[in-house]
Amino acid sequence: MKVLITGGAGFIGSHTADALIERGDDVILLDNLSKPVHLKGIPTYLHPKAKLIIGDVRDPKIFLETLKSVDAVIHLAAYQDYLPDFSTFFSVNAVGTALLYELIVANRLPIKRVVVASSQSVNGEGLYRCEIHGLVAPSSRPVEQLERGDWPMRCPECGREAAWQWTPESFSHPENQYALSKESQEKMALSFGRKYAIPSVALRYSIVQGPRQSFYNAYSGACRIFALHYYFKKAPTIYEDGLMQRDFVNYRDVVKANLLALDDERMIGQQFNVGGGKPYTVKEFDRIVAKISGCEDIEPSIPGVFRFGDTRNSCSDITKLRGMGWEPSGTVQESVSEYVEWLRGQADIGGIFEFAEKNMRSLNVIRDANAD
């Protein structure tokens, strides 16, 4: 099979390419090498057998040329950041996906499978359980609540603290520009796929961890932030109270899900959560990174700041994908160990996290609580 991976020079794309090539597939990577993710140009980790085409998924000419020569597409190209340039999220994520299906339909391309990468962010805050009102779906916490240092999610009916639930892919409640653009990708994949007989699958990734995550993308998350701080023997800052629950998934398990979605006809026309199946608080995750980094003696700073737009809890129910025979096998410890080992082999990484935090503060993404 000949497979096109959009965003193929990135973290998940490059690992997926490696796995496809290992099993004997031909791989084309389409990537615009956008900054800051690819600040230094073409990554050195790309497989020598993968053909890299530098181009944008919004460019119909170059996109069509690559599509003409392949049997299947794994569509990973996406814009991710905390920047308030709302139109860019939809231009890249939504328009790029629309163009993918437009070109297939208009040119009657015999594409056998399209796998579209979605995100856990589509869930928003997900589902919670109130002891009085049962299952509820709260919206984001009001800024006024966060500014008081009142961190828990509360029932939208009575205001009581509510307990997070594993959230299935049948639920969605996107509340920021990235999540809205990813939900639009899901809906296009399933709707256009069904209407025009283009076998399509959407995968909602949880927080993917492992080597090759860009140091320069603020969206890369806790592993990058904590590992970089401990690399320089500095205490990282944990937002809120550190008790936010997160669902981390190993990159190998995501690659495994990508290949399954490419091959398994039972998955056509559906979306699936791809998660780790085990929750961790951010404080717990910090201690894992500190231990693996050899910095258990350094305690994190928890000054009561918050990051505007963050969900309190994000944990995806993976029952449906397990029903396809997939099972997460990589542990958080393995993900962090590989990331830290990869980090130690890099050069010129000084000042990265200072730049990211300064940038987010300048955009009013990181804010201080005014709790008494």
Structure report:
The chain has a single domain, classed as NAD(P)-binding Rossmann-like Domain (Rossmann fold, 3-Layer(aba) Sandwich). The longest helix has 21 residues, at 86-106. Helix content is 34%, strand content 17%. The chain is an alpha/beta fold. The N and C termini lie far apart (61 Å). The strands form 4 sheets. A 7-stranded parallel sheet has the order 3-2-1-4-5-9-12, with helices on both faces. Strands 7-6-8 form a 3-stranded antiparallel sheet, with no helix packed on it.
Short description:
The chain has about 375 residues and is of the alpha/beta class.
| The CATH architecture | 3-Layer(aba) Sandwich
Helix count equals 11
CATH topology: Rossmann fold
Look at the structure and give the CATH class.
Alpha Beta
Helix percentage: 25-40%
Query: Could you tell me the radius of gyration in angstroms?
Result: 20 Å
Number of β-strand runs: 15
Q: Report the average pLDDT across residues.
A: 92
Shape: globular
Task: Enumerate the spans where pLDDT stays under 50 for 5 or more consecutive residues.
Answer: none
Number of domains: 1
Oligomer: single chain
Q: Tell me the strand order in the biggest sheet.
A: 3-2-1-4-5-9-12
Write out the CATH superfamily name.
NAD(P)-binding Rossmann-like Domain
- Could you say which structural class the secondary elements and strand pairing correspond to? alpha/beta
Q: Proportion of β residues?
A: 15-25%
**Terminal Cα separation, in Å?**
61 Å
What is the string of SSEs from the N terminus onward?
EHEEHEHEEEHEHEEHEHEEHEHHHE
Q: How can the largest sheet be summarized?
A: 7 strands, parallel
